[in-house]
């Protein structure tokens, strides 16, 4: 089973060290399995990341580079011809395939065309206005979760800001999309547990992605006065690519001008929505246990990418920036029949969403094939690290709302960002976890910069990235310069 949240930053999870936001149900899952502390998304956008999860490939290889609907001439469903998706391999192995919730994965319009049965919507999916969701509420006598907006990142009328908003919603958690998705999964579990055929179910919550609209029973769970200012909040972006300043000031202008007191209120709503998801994960786990399915089920908890929510002077949303809050993601895996040695273990190897497809297939006794970029995590789950396990981690960015390319590489405590059209970035994440000091031109980091560039060039060539010889030449010249 895959439990997937949307746009969930690591600082929302207490099992990852969060001190304000509390996630006891997800923490309990981590205590029963393995927590990965160096997990990354291959791209900090919903559609490219979810397509990578399906294929085990980086976005440049499957072709889904942007989110649905951002660029009118880009049709992600025309991408990926001839590629294998992991549900195909699971179906061949005799698995029943279920999907409930957000899809937004490109490659196919909905989960149904990828071989799943269940509920999904096209594109991002307007779940709050969807008739299936609204009928679910009516049948149970529940009110619609009418929104009350307090903040709009774009400024102006929040009802016209495309969901980049915060506030609260009428009703209790039973009226929320995440409760609805859990109910759909539990119903599907009842169906699948009636026979002996193996099954795979993806539970894909829309939350905690904006709009941040916790219901009345959760909205005041956190006091904004208890939320300390982000270390990067007063960042003037000196020494960073010029695009950072333009993005902050132009894409979400109201967010860039918001005071910390107001941001703390937005973050409190975000954390409250995280608490709702955590509550639903607890219901889901209890549902597995009550049906006798918990112990022998592989359970994966992950998010497609993180969230900016006020960092570096008021950024909002995701994509187009390489910040840690966007690219480092939660990943927790409870193996079937977890042993004492597996329970509560922490793995520090570099892993990615591209590794989930081959892991699902290996668990099912099949394989994706040798031409993918991801790797089966089974050895790591068993406490073994192959001698050839990756020493660094790659991610890519093709822009969001504005097209451009970046490549990101982590190695040990260093992070390098290759910006072909602007200055590069280099951060010592041990000394500077908030990424305030770009050391790309620091004479004391010159050799580190060269080493990271060599590593990146090797990965681009290994994965046939296709940036083109001119772009590769820029990187080569920076190494030699």
Report on the architecture of this protein.
The chain has two domains: 2-390, Alkaline Phosphatase, subunit A, CATH 3.40.720; 402-481, Arylsulfatase, C-terminal domain. The chain contains 15 helices and 16 strands. The chain has helices at residues 24-31, 46-55, 59-62, 86-92, 131-139, 177-192, 242-250, 253-256, 260-290, 311-314, 324-327, 356-363, 378-381, 446-462, 469-480; strands at residues 2-6, 34-36, 39-40, 96-101, 117-119, 147-152, 165-169, 199-208, 299-303, 331-334, 345-347, 351-352, 392-399, 403-411, 414-418, 425-428. It has 481 residues and is an alpha/beta fold. Helix 1 crosses helix 9 and helix 6 (177-192) runs parallel beside helix 9. It has an eight-stranded mixed beta sheet, sandwiched between helices. A four-stranded antiparallel beta sheet has the order 13-14-15-16, covered by helices on one side.
Oligomer: single chain
The SS-based structural class is alpha/beta
Low-confidence stretches: none
Q: What's the CATH H-level homologous superfamily of the largest domain? A: Alkaline Phosphatase, subunit A
Biggest pleated sheet = 8 strands, mixed
Which keywords apply here?
481 residues; alpha/beta; Alkaline Phosphatase, subunit A; 2 domains; 15 helices
Summarize the structure.
The chain contains 15 helices and 16 strands. By secondary structure, it is of the alpha/beta class.
Give the secondary structure arrangement, pairings included:
Layout: E1 2-6, H1 24-31, E2 34-36, E3 39-40, H2 46-55, H3 59-62, H4 86-92, E4 96-101, E5 117-119, H5 131-139, E6 147-152, E7 165-169, H6 177-192, E8 199-208, H7 242-250, H8 253-256, H9 260-290, E9 299-303, H10 311-314, H11 324-327, E10 331-334, E11 345-347, E12 351-352, H12 356-363, H13 378-381, E13 392-399, E14 403-411, E15 414-418, E16 425-428, H14 446-462, H15 469-480
Parallel strand pairs: 1-8, 1-9, 2-11, 3-12, 4-5, 4-8
Antiparallel strand pairs: 2-10, 6-7, 9-10, 13-14, 14-15, 15-16
Helix pairs in contact: 1-9, 6-9, 14-15
């Amino acid at each position: 089973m895959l439990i997937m949240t949307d746009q969930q930053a690591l600082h929302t999870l207490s099992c990852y060290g969060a001190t304000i936001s509390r996630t006891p149900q997800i923490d309990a899952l981590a205590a029963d399995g393995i927590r990965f502390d160096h997990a990354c998304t291959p791209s900090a956008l919903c559609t490219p990341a979810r397509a990578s999860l399906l294929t085990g490939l980086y976005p440049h290889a499957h072709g889904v580079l942007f989110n649905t609907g951002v660029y009118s001439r880009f049709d992600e469903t025309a991408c990926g011809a001839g590629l294998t998706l992991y549900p195909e391999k699971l179906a061949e192995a005799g698995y029943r395939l279920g999907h409930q919730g957000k899809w937004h994965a490109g490659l196919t319009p909905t989960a149904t065309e990828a071989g799943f049965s269940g509920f999904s919507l096209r594109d991002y999916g307007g779940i709050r206005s969807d008739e299936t969701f609204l009928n679910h509420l009516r049948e149970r006598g529940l009110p619609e979760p009418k929104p009350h907006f307090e903040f709009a990142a774009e400024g102006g009328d929040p009802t016209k800001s495309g969901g980049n908003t915060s506030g609260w919603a009428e009703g209790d958690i039973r009226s929320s999309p995440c409760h609805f998705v859990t109910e759909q999964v539990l119903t599907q579990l009842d169906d699948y547990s009636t026979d002996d055929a193996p099954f795979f179910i993806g539970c894909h919550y829309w939350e905690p992605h904006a709009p941040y609209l916790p219901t009345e029973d959760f909205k005041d769970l956190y006091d904004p006065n208890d939320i300390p200012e982000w270390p990067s909040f007063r960042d003037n972006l000196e020494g960073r690519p010029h695009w950072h300043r333009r993005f902050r000031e132009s894409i979400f202008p109201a967010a860039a001008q918001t005071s910390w007191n107001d941001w703390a209120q937005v973050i409190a709503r975000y954390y409250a929505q995280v608490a709702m998801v955590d509550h639903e994960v607890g219901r889901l786990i209890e549902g597995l246990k009550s049906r006798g399915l918990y112990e022998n089920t592989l359970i994966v908890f992950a998010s497609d990418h993180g969230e900016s929510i006020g960092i570096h002077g008021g950024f909002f949303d995701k994509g187009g920036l390489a910040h840690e809050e966007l690219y480092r993601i939660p990943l927790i895996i409870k193996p079937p029949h977890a042993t004492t040695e597996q329970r509560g273990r922490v793995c520090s190897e570099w892993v990615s969403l591209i590794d989930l497809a081959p892991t699902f297939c290996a668990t099912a006794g099949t394989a994706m094939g040798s031409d993918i970029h991801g790797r089966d995590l089974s050895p790591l789950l068993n406490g073994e690290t192959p001698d050839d396990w990756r020493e660094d981690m790659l991610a890519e960015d093709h822009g969001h709302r504005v097209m451009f390319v970046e490549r990101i590489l982590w190695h040990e405590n260093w992070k390098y960002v290759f910006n072909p059209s602007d200055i590069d970035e280099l951060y010592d994440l041990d000394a500077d976890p908030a990424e305030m000091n770009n050391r790309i031109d620091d004479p004391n980091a010159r050799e580190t910069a060269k080493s990271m560039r060599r590593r990146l060039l090797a990965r681009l060539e290994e994965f046939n990235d296709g940036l083109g010889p001119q772009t590769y030449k820029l990187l080569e010249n920076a190494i030699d310069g």
